[in-house]
Structure formats: C-alpha cells, structure tokens
Automatic annotation (TrEMBL):
Residues 304-313 have a biased composition (Acidic residues). Residues 7-143, 154-287 form the UspA domain. InterPro entries: Rossmann-like_a/b/a_fold, Universal_stress_UspA, UspA. SUPFAM superfamilies: Adenine nucleotide alpha hydrolases-like (SSF52402). Residues 290-313 are annotated as: Disordered. Signal peptide: none annotated. This is Universal stress protein.
Length: 313
C-alpha cells in the first residue's frame, strides 16, 4: 500500500532542525505534498526511575518549550504554498519518527558535519543515524550549513554497488533528478583494500567497464522511460570518501542501507554511516524496508511508441 504524500520533518529548536525545516519545505513544495512538522520530547533518563518524583511543573515546562518550538516553526513555513500540519509527540524522537515513517513518503532530520564532542551534537548524530537505519521510508539528513544553497536541486549523486537493494536507491535518485530536472551521476566505487586482490591494469579497466554496464542495465529497469541527464562512472577507492568529496559539488546524495543486522551501525552500513557524518549536502538514505509500491515518482509517466500518438510524461 502506498504511503501518504507527506513530508515529515523532525525539529528540536536547534540550528540543525531549522535547516531540516527549510529543506523539507522546498521538498514538500516540489512534491505537492503536505508538510508535517513533528517535535518529539521526553524526560531525561535520570527522571524515569521509579524512586524519582518529577514535579508536574517541570513536565509542563518541558511541554511548553516543545510547543513553542513547533508553533514558531509553523509560523516560519505558513503561507508558502504548502499545506502545513504539526504535532507534539511525547517519546524518544527516534522512535517517534520511525513509527511515523510507516505511513509517509519522506522523513527529514537535521545533521551536523562537525564532530565537536558536545553532548547536544552527539545526541543529534544519534537521531540522524538511527532514524535512517530503522525508518520505513527514505530519510534525508540535512547538514546545518545553508540548505538553501542546495535548493533547487541541480546535481544528484547516487552511490550503488550492483545489489538489488541499491537498485531501489537508484530508482529514488531517478525520481529526484526527474522531479527537479537535475543531472544524475551514478557512482559505483570499488575499494581495493576491501576486495583483497586487484587485477592487472588492463583487466581492472575491463572490470570497471563491466560494472558500469551492469549499473546501466539496472538504470534501464527503474527509469520508467524518463528522460534525464545521467552519467555512470565506476572508479577505485573508498565509496564513503569519494561520495563525501562529490557531495561538495552536489545538491543531494542518494544511497541505500546494508540492512544485515539489528545494531544501528550494522544496519545502516559503513558507507552510509560514514557519509552522514561528512556529507556537505543533504543525503537521502533508502532503507531496505522500502517496498516498490510504497511511493511513486513524479509523473505519471506513460510509455508509448515514438510513432504512436500519446502523451509522454
């Protein structure tokens, strides 16, 4: 069953949350979707023990603070051509957003590229890695610095590895490129140190060419006849490092999750996990839980023969 055409943004009153809100507004407008603003709040863990008595005044203060954050966010985005709704949710922010992701098209959260070691930054990085790892829909992590510089989206990069799940991420990248009339670069990077053996130069080039051909075949399966500007490139090197470099000249990076374990780090995968901390532009993570009929791209796209009358989307 298709998810609702809703873009959800998680906010907390921080600069990172404000960046996520700004980017989510632009995405909701491009999708003609509803923008749903969510603030999840909870008592600090030390207050949750049975012997600790929490004054009702403290609980009310926590609620009032969260309410103010949401109200100010709504005022910021109202009247800009997008339907806006909001909600205050008591609970762990990650759990709140993951639950909501079961029925919406996209979740957007803020992230930081600088590792300062501060508690607030560590907590933010926990949300920005845990939500993409466990969500039921694609999640976009928006770096703090100037999301407006990445809208409109003109350059999309998609990291793939030839797997079936990477094909799902590739489809989402195609949709974004089509939605924004952007150029799409599809990257497949092979890390020699991870392979353990690298063939001779001539055979290595042949191997990279074969990988490009395999990705081209996957692209043909998911592009639905869309006419987009796309380039496929296969290179040697660390996927996370190369994607981080490419993010400096891109407006959106798209990649999938590995999804082989129950722990957040394993579920997200080393490439995704590393990139979320260092990407210079918004990064979309497409989880393994995403199903083909959960969402659809811009369109509709109608495939017809060039010699036949009809409408091409």
């Amino acid at each position: 069953m298709a998810h609702e055409n809703i873009v959800v943004v998680g906010i907390d009153g921080s600069e990172a949350g404000n960046s996520a809100l700004e980017w989510a507004l632009a995405q909701a407008r491009a999708r003609e979707a509803r923008l749903h603003i969510v603030c999840g709040y909870e008592l600090p863990s030390q207050y949750m023990s049975p012997e600790f008595q929490v004054a009702q005044g403290n609980v009310n203060h926590l609620y009032d603070s969260a309410r103010k954050i949401v109200d100010e966010a709504v005022v910021t985005v109202e009247g800009q051509g997008v339907e806006v709704t909001s909600a205050l949710e008591f609970g762990d922010p990650t759990e709140v957003l993951v639950e909501i992701s079961k029925r919406v098209a996209l979740v957007v959260v803020g992230g930081r590229t600088q590792h300062t070691g501060r508690l607030a930054d560590r907590l933010l990085r926990t949300v920005s890695s845990a939500v993409p790892a466990n969500a039921y829909c694609p999640t976009v992590v928006v770096p703090t610095d100037s999301p407006s510089s990445h809208v409109p989206i003109e350059r999309v990069v998609c990291g793939v590895d030839g797997s079936e799940h990477a094909k799902m991420a590739l489809q989402r990248a195609v949709w974004e490129a089509d939605r924004w009339n952007a150029k799409l670069t599809v990257l497949v990077a092979v890390n020699p140190s991870a392979v353990g053996w690298v063939p001779a130069y001539t055979f290595r080039d042949e191997h990279l060419h074969e990988m490009e051909s395999a990705v081209a075949a996957q692209l043909a399966e998911v592009d639905e006849g869309r006419k987009i500007d796309v380039e496929i490139t296969a290179v040697e090197g660390s996927p996370a490092h190369i994607l981080a470099q490419m993010s400096e000249e891109s407006d959106l990076v798209v990649l999938g999750t590995r999804g082989r374990g129950g722990f957040t780090g394993l579920l997200l995968g080393s490439t995704s996990q590393t990139l979320l901390g260092y990407s210079a532009c918004p990064t979309m993570v497409v989880p393994r839980r995403v199903r083909k009929d959960d969402d659809h791209g811009p369109g509709p796209v109608q495939l017809v023969d060039d010699d036949e009358p009809g409408i091409k989307g």
